[in-house]
UniProtKB/TrEMBL annotation, chain A:
InterPro entries on file: NIF_FeS_clus_asmbl_NifU_N
CDD domains, per database record: IscU_like
Protein name: NIF system FeS cluster assembly NifU N-terminal domain-containing protein
Organism domain of life: Bacteria
GO MF entries: iron ion binding; iron-sulfur cluster binding
Matching Pfam families: NifU_N
The organism of origin for this protein: Candidatus Magasanikbacteria bacterium RIFCSPLOWO2_02_FULL_44_11
GO terms under biological process: iron-sulfur cluster assembly
Record PANTHER family: IRON-SULFUR CLUSTER ASSEMBLY ENZYME NIFU HOMOLOG (PTHR10093)
Length: 126, 403
């Protein structure tokens, strides 16, 4: 039952960093074609390339949506370089769900995939 | 309880997986059904007693294998009231529909259109989209009425003199609604359109009669009718197969004579079965069809109707059911506001209840209905009201968890 722990369910009902930024440098959206889950991430970068502000929108299952909350919280204030190194394993650890089946793994990593693409598009631009 | 314990046991006996996992509640029959013992045994017999290639050997073993394979064709033909030469074995409905799209589209031009419906499975949309890009014809979609059903009116609005093909699903894999096949086919034929019936969701649940339907083609899969995976059927009217349809795959078995320069085709149905076919699969399907006939499809349908009625009654106060009760067999798709279908299925899985979630290979229909995925239960002959009770317990648990 760890997937539906109180912590995760609470974060699902009261997500962190969910919404839109008044100003952002990049916006990237990804979806999971299998189940229709979406996550869009907006990032406002600081002068030194740090993640000054980050927000996300989306809809989907508990796993994809709480992952987005946790991930955006985790990378806030980090440099692009450090944030880009955040791995799939670390994402699962952050979620506390390390024994996911392949279908749910895609849900868990949707936010991370979105972040990575957003960061890459920022790096390509600068 | 609608079903007496004895009938319950009588049916379960035919499904090893369910018999040995009595706490499992399998409600994903629209995706695939469990395989009946008759099919398993027939395939096992082929592999252990008659294993040889067909139509090739003069030795007894090969002759026995050929007889079994052709007997399966007879079984399937009589199941849908077709002639044996009209039954082509394919790998399944998707293969059959792709074959028809590839084979029928070259005669279409940019002036022509084909008619599909809002309900279609991806397998009856994507092949046509690809062909449309190549040959320039347009695709028109028959609309659903306010109850989410197809009727003659849906087709009257889109069929015109330039409609060359009408291809539609007889039973929706999302809504479970049954389309008025005969009426639709009559309308299509008034415009001289070729008619294709996707019977994947119908084959195990309603009586199929191609002569009564009068369709030009009808396709279905073995694995959705208690048979094995990897085998399906493409039925075509003899005149069509003989005069209008060219072979799709070329190779062994489908030829009459080959030189280094040219080849001529074998007679029906062999000209459409290139290469060594799925012999065991066909034999398994033949046995599954035999088993359905013996069990009685009408009797099975009556039992399924009881279970689906019960499910409708029990689920109505708990979830949002897509579509209405009318004209529906075997399938209920639903949503619970605020809870993603994946999470519904995950919690149900913890109770050993198997349901499908997502788009069910009908993404356009979901978007058309404004749905971002649904949860779906679909029943088979072995499901009872007890299974629905287990589902209801699971759904209550989901709702409590997310309250």
């Amino acid at each position: 039952m760890e997937m539906y722990s109180e912590l995760i369910l609470d974060l699902y009902k009261h997500p962190a960093n969910k919404g839109n930024l008044p100003n952002y440098t990049v916006r990237w959206e990804e979806h999971n074609p299998l189940c229709g889950d979406t996550v869009a991430i907006e990032i406002d970068f600081g002068k030194k390339g740090e993640i000054k502000n980050i927000a996300w929108q989306g809809n989907g299952c508990v796993v994809s949506q709480t992952a987005a909350s946790l991930l955006t919280d985790h990378v806030k204030d980090k440099t692009t370089k450090v944030a880009a190194k955040f791995s799939s394993e670390e994402m699962l650890e952050l979620l506390g769900l390390t024994k996911l089946n392949p279908t749910r793994l895609r849900c868990a990593l949707l936010g991370l995939k979105t972040l990575q693409k957003a960061l890459a598009s920022y790096v390509a631009r600068t | 309880m609608y079903m007496s314990r004895t009938i319950d046991k009588e049916i379960i006996k035919n499904f090893t997986l369910l018999k040995t996992n009595q706490s499992l509640v399998y409600l994903d029959n629209a995706a695939t059904t469990q395989t009946c013992v008759a099919a398993l045994k027939a395939m096992d017999d082929y592999y252990t007693k008659s294993r040889a290639n067909i139509h090739r050997g003069v030795y007894n073993l090969s002759i026995r294998a050929t007889e079994q394979y052709e007997a399966a064709r007879d079984q399937v033909a009589s199941y849908i009231n077709a002639d044996r030469e009209e039954i082509i074995f394919t790998s399944g409905t998707t293969h059959s529909l792709n074959q028809l799209a590839y084979s029928l589209s070259p005669r279409l031009s940019h002036r022509d259109n084909i008619v599909l419906t809002r309900l279609e499975h991806h397998a009856n949309i994507v092949p046509w989209q690809q062909m449309a890009k190549h040959y320039g014809f347009t695709i028109r979609y028959a609309e659903l009425n306010k109850d989410g059903e197809l009727n003659a009116n849906s087709f009257q609005k889109v069929i015109n003199a330039n409609t060359k093909i009408v291809s539609f699903t007889l039973v929706s894999n999302v809504l479970g609604t049954v389309a008025p096949g005969q009426e639709i086919i009559k309308l299509a034929q008034a415009s001289k359109a070729v008619t294709i019936v996707d019977a994947a969701q119908a084959a195990a649940h309603i009586t199929l009669d191609v002569k009564k339907l009068n369709c030009d083609f009808l396709v279905f899969s073995g694995h959705k009718m208690y048979g094995p995976t990897g085998i399906g059927v493409l039925y075509g009217k003899k005149i069509f197969l003989e005069e209008h349809l060219e072979p799709f795959l070329f190779g062994g078995e489908m030829v009459q004579s080959v030189s280094y320069e040219n080849a001529t085709w074998a007679e029906l149905p062999y000209k459409f079965e290139a290469g060594t076919p799925n012999i065991a699969g066909a034999i398994g399907l033949g046995a599954a069809v035999g088993w359905i006939k013996k069990a009685g499809i009408k009797k099975m349908a009556t039992q399924e109707e009881k279970v689906i009625s019960y499910a409708f009654k029990k689920l109505t106060p708990l979830v949002k059911i897509v579509g209405t009760r009318k004209n529906r067999i075997g399938i209920i798709s639903f949503t619970i506001p605020g809870i993603h279908p994946h999470d519904i299925a995950e919690v149900l899985n913890q109770n050993q209840v198997c349901i499908r979630t997502g788009y069910h290979c009908a993404e356009p229909l979901h978007h058309h209905l404004g749905l971002n995925g649904t949860a779906r239960l679909s029943i088979g002959v072995y499901n009872t009201t007890k299974d629905i009770d287990a589902l209801v317990v699971g759904i209550k648990k989901v709702k409590k968890l997310f309250a």
